Give the backbone structure.
Amino acid sequence: MLAPRQSDQLEARVNAKFMSFFVLAFSLALISQPAKAGSFPITATAILDGNDEQVSVTGGPLSLFTQAPSGPYLVAIYNPGVVNFSSGVQMFSALNGGFGLVTFGNQSTDLAAGVLLFSGTFTLPAQPDNTELTITFPVTFIGNGIAYQDLSGTNGLLVIGPQIFDLAFKGSGTVTLQGYFFNGQYFVGGENASFNGTATVVPEPSSVLLLGTGLAGIVGMRRKLRANLVRLR
């Protein structure tokens, strides 16, 4: 049986040990993260039409441009009335048959992939056939982008290197549609988006696992130490 003062001292040592392990695990998790800002503001544009599927994002350490060799012949068809709009623009690069030029901090690559998803609501007025119409409305967006080092040599073989970044995007802006009416419907041939938001670095799975495993181990250790302390009392 421990005297009250001895018991308090032992508990203080238990708490100190717990805190030191917590700080160590948390520090290791932070060290394993890329040495870049967690989030930063971005300005971006996206184009989707018969000739192009293009994304451009700039802000903070990021400069990203991707382009497909061509776009869809027809973007969408809408009926007059209230339209619940949703659309996605894909990022193309050498990974999937397009062109990419990406800089993040002091690293550059042509290997990037991702998608931006836009959503909003607008009212489409009925128009006579063959009437051309351009309409602009507010949207919100979410998306992601990931880039890898290009370790390809001169032999023409694509060699994908380590990951440079994994970013999550979100924000708001506007979308402009260009199209025409036929048989009472609105045929969209072009879609242009302009938007602002934030890009957030997504932690690598290994980092998250390290932090989670460390905290779980610390909780278990503290429970064990406290149980031993109770028995000593």
